[in-house]
UniProtKB/TrEMBL annotation:
<protein>
    <submittedName>
        <fullName>LRC43 protein</fullName>
    </submittedName>
</protein>
<feature type="region of interest" description="Disordered">
    <location>
        <begin position="18"/>
        <end position="62"/>
    </location>
</feature>
<dbReference type="GO" id="GO:0005737">
    <property type="term" value="C:cytoplasm"/>
</dbReference>
<dbReference type="InterPro" id="IPR032675">
    <property type="entry name" value="LRR_dom_sf"/>
</dbReference>
<dbReference type="InterPro" id="IPR001611">
    <property type="entry name" value="Leu-rich_rpt"/>
</dbReference>
<keyword id="KW-0433">Leucine-rich repeat</keyword>
<keyword id="KW-0677">Repeat</keyword>
Length: 329
């Protein structure tokens, strides 16, 4: 299956970081530029430009000239219009500091890695090479399970939105201790076992949690477990069946007094006062919902008034029609 590290290497080949004007270009006689500051974000690497003491060898190009080839739209080596800011910064870093691309130095320098819609199915052990990684974005892939042993301990943001995650057991075996945001929206999580894995025992520093558009149904159990997350301030649960409960928002607002934002809506003091005491009435959090469907108009059926025009006692034929209407939710 396609892995994160494999997709990363393929993406580097696609960017052509070893090819002119990136990499060493035709500056084979130049000493490596001096790095200034520590690398920040990914792939935004900060590198010092070649100083005036670095003479350009005959037939070579200066770093400024090579950067111009990347930035000038009419250049045959210009970056594509859809190139992200991170990709642009990485290409420019390959010009200014090509030695960063050698061996594992690039992986060690990256702070953020975005692999969106790359067909990734596995978070493999190779991710551990990113020793300083703080943000891992894996949105819109095909990941069904995440092994926490393959995640760098430095991770603060893990985004898994729009995947096929159905179980958190492997992720919670040894999760990154400093994780602040966990994005699991648009996956296949369903209770009741999953709620027990969303506690402070696994996520002591979690500030933001996105569980939207899964199949969670047990509001009472989920609120009980989330209440242990002392640092949780942002919660997204919309799109789950439990959000259909009439007292859903009020119950969570009262159950999680430290929460600041629920389903992208700020919780104001007036709302918290309005729902005060609702958490002590669990009987109001019914696990069922009633849906009333009204049919306003149906086309393609015989008009009933036409049958009413038959005279009493007439021998006209009586035609009966039966219909079956099916609703899928």
């Amino acid at each position: 299956p396609s892995s994160v590290s494999g997709a990363f290497q393929e993406h580097l080949r696609h960017l052509g970081l070893q090819d002119f004007p990136c990499g060493r270009g035709t500056r084979h006689g130049l000493p490596p530029p001096v790095l200034s500051g520590r690398p920040q974000n990914s792939p935004g690497l900060r590198a010092g430009r070649a100083g005036p003491e670095e003479a350009v060898p005959p037939g070579g190009e200066s770093p400024e000239a090579l950067l111009e080839l990347l930035r000038e739209r009419s250049s045959p080596w210009a970056l594509p219009p859809g190139c992200s800011p991170q990709e642009r910064l990485l290409c420019e870093a390959a010009v200014l500091a090509p030695e960063l691309l050698r061996g594992s130095r690039l992986c060690q320098a990256l702070r953020s890695l975005r692999m969106v819609d790359k067909g990734v199915e596995e978070v493999d052990e190779g991710v551990l090479r990113f020793q300083q990684l703080e943000e891992l974005i894996l949105t819109a892939n095909r990941i069904s399970r995440v092994t926490s042993a393959h995640l760098p301990r430095t991770l603060k943001v893990l985004e898994l939105c729009c995947n096929a995650v159905c179980d958190l057991q492997d992720l919670c075996a040894r999760p990154p201790p400093e994780l602040q945001h966990l994005g699991l929206g648009y996956n296949r999580l369903c209770g009741p076992s999953q709620e027990k894995l969303l506690t402070v025992d696994f996520w002591p520093n979690l500030i933001s949690l996105d569980l939207s558009f899964n199949s969670l149904t047990d509001l009472l159990e989920l609120a009980s477990q989330l209440s242990t997350l002392q640092k949780l301030r942002i919660l997204v649960l919309q799109g789950n069946p439990l959000a259909l409960i009439p007292t859903y928002r009020g119950f969570l607002v009262d159950s999680l007094p430290r929460l600041s934002i629920l389903d992208d809506i700020h919780i104001w003091p007036e709302e918290r006062q309005q729902f005060h005491g609702l958490a002590r009435q669990p009987e109001l959090t019914r696990s069922g919902a009633r849906v009333v469907v009204s049919i306003g108009e149906m086309k393609g059926l015989p008009d009933p008034e036409a049958f009413q025009q038959l005279e009493v006692g007439s021998e006209g034929p009586v035609i009966t029609h039966s219909y079956c209407v099916t609703y899928e939710f």
